[in-house]
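Quick one from the shared queue. A colleague (R.T.) flagged Type IV pili fiber building block protein as missing a structural entry in our internal table.

Convert sequence to structure tokens.
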Amino acid sequence: MKNLMKAKNNKGFTLIELMIVVAIIGILAAVAIPQYTQYTRSADAQSTMSEASPYKTAVAVCIQTNGGALAPCAAGAEGIPAVAGAVTAIAAGVITVNFGDVDGDTTVETGTLTPAIVGGQVQWTYASTAGTNVCTDWVEC
């Protein structure tokens, strides 16, 4: 009879404890998912800009070799490689870059990298030609 009177020892979580855990996970997900999306977009844009880096170097060498003239610096000429990947065109030293749909709005983001001689050095400026301005949103240009 004594064994029957003993209280059962329940194991497990109560409903309120489980609801609190679910609420905490929901709050963390609400913060983490937008941050992760921003991070992946930034990584994609930076990857595309790094693809343009060898072309920037080749164009800079072409400009220096030609005494500051931009006209002869085109893809496949003057030691500049043919365009491939994210780099879609090089004409008169201006590099056109296709980022794809970086921000998820179905608009393909493209831009141009334009060289200029400043103080004897080649400096690059980026201008968005379609879609979001990738440099202000995801990449330091």
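The first helix runs from residue 2 to 5.
The two ends are 81 Å apart (CA to CA).
Added to the table.
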